[in-house]
Specification:
Layout: E1 3-7, E2 12-13, H1 19-33, E3 42-46, H2 55-77
Antiparallel strand pairs: 1-2, 1-3
Amino acid sequence: MAWRYECGPCAVTTGWLPKDQAAAKRDEHRTTAHAGMVPTVEVFESNAKSIAQDPAALRMWAVIAAVCLLAWISQIAR
C-alpha cells in the first residue's frame, strides 16, 4: 500500500510512497511553502482498494462469517 500527498493551492503532488515518507514530504512542504500552517485544501490518500470494491475480499469475509456462524450454531446445539 502506498500513499500520496497533494497540496491544492500549490498543485504540488508527491509520487506513491510509503506512508511515513509521504507524511514527511507533506510536513516538509507545509514548513517551506506555507510557514508551518495547514493549506486550505490537502489530499493525503492511499492507493489501497476499498473492501467494497474488491469482490474476492467480500467473498472471503462472507466465508469467514459463515464459518463463524456455523461454529456458533454448533456450540448452541450441544
